[in-house]
Amino acid sequence: MRSASNRVRRARPSLGTFVEITAGGDSEAKLHGAIDHAFDAVARVDRQMSFHHPASDISRINREAFQRTVTVDPWTWHVLRAAQELSHESDGIFDITVARKLMQWKYLPRRYRNVSDGNWRDIILEKNCTVRFRQRVIVDLGGIAKGFAVDRAVKALKCAGVPSGVVNAGGDLRVFGLKSELVHLRHPAEPMRPAGAIKLHERALATSGIYFAQKRRGRAVVSSLLDGRTCRSSRKVISVSVAASACMMADALTKIVFVLREKSMSLLARYHADALLLERDGAPLWKFHSPCDTCDPTRFD
Question: What pLDDT score was predicted for residue 221?
């Protein structure tokens, strides 16, 4: 579609959600071509990093990396390395090997057997984009790859000469260009209505909550947001939103802030990120604004 401001907006299913890309500029044909390139980037991430696709890099390393070294796409290796760094910096709270628990709780298909109780330290990233496992761990990039896909789509738009736009992958989004964009936050207890809105400018935003993710396991209620150190899930009805320069980082940091809350301040400051926790009633529970003088903090006001 084309609006009076000469913006083109398109959407398609990918990454287990809908990805919407908006591009602004002079030529409608040029904008459509740029959006095509951006969707190609998203498709590449989905193709290589999906837990569900049998031929993806993630499926191949889950099947084979304990037995031999596996070569993966450079993008996959980059995301695995970023996940490793965040695991180290969060003392294991962020851990992509919690996939074994997500399989057990049926958040992921249970297609692997005889999985060990290892952790992120059992993932060895070697030169030339190769990966091997010390133990038979299973990994899932669901907590970080969607943000990376948004970043790659934004880069594709910029490389095609698009001056402004928005990429939104199921709530993980990034805004670029001179114009700020108004973004609505979900209400933690009633996710179909907003709990407020913020303006984003040259910034990415990701939100995590358990509103769509709770399940009953026997007498217990569980969610897909886990503390990687204990593999225990949170049942607290709050939402966590993180703004950062890159969507991959915002996406991953939401999982850490969900567990650490106020104790995550030093990590947020390290990545020049801002955070907002909303209580069950939609009221702010805690805010953090990065003290960085050179970044453009998001004001959760």
Answer: 59
What's the farthest any 2 CA atoms get from each other in the chain?
Answer: 58
The DSSP letter of residue 2 is B
Question: Which helix (DSSP H) or strand (DSSP E) does residue 49 occupy?
Answer: helix 28-49
Report helix, strand or coil for 262: helix
DSSP labels for 224-255?
Answer: S-EETTTTEEP----EEEEEESSHHHHHHHHH
Residue 241: both structure tokens together: 């939103």
Q: Which residues contact 219 (CB under 8 A, 6 or more apart)?
A: none
Is there a contact between 152 and 82 (Cβ–Cβ < 8 Å)?
Answer: no
Task: Please list the residues that pair with 31 across neighbouring strands.
Answer: none
- What is the Cα 246 distance to its own chain's centre? 10
In order of their start, the domains of the chain are: 57-133 (1.10.3980.10), 180-301 (3.10.520.10)
| 10 to 2, 6, 148, 153: CA distances (angstroms) | 10, 13, 19, 13
3-state helix, strand, coil in the chain (%, to 5): 30, 30, 40
pLDDT digits (tens, 9 = 90+) for 130-165: 999 999 999 999 999 999 999 999 999 999 999 999
Torsional class of 26: left (φ above 0), alpha (ψ -120 to 50), beta (otherwise): alpha
Most confident of 41-50, 183-192, 237-246: 41-50
CA angle 28, 34, 38 (to 5 degrees): 140
Residues 199-240 pLDDT 10s: 999 999 999 876 656 556 666 556 677 888 888 877 665 789
DSSP string, 271-299: TT-EEEEE-TTS-EEEEE----SSS----
Q: Which two tokens stand for residue 239?
A: 């939402």
Question: For residues 246 and 190, what is the distance between their CA atoms, to the nearest angstrom?
Answer: 28
- Report which of 166, 147, 146 is spatially closest to residue 157, judged by C-alpha positions: 166
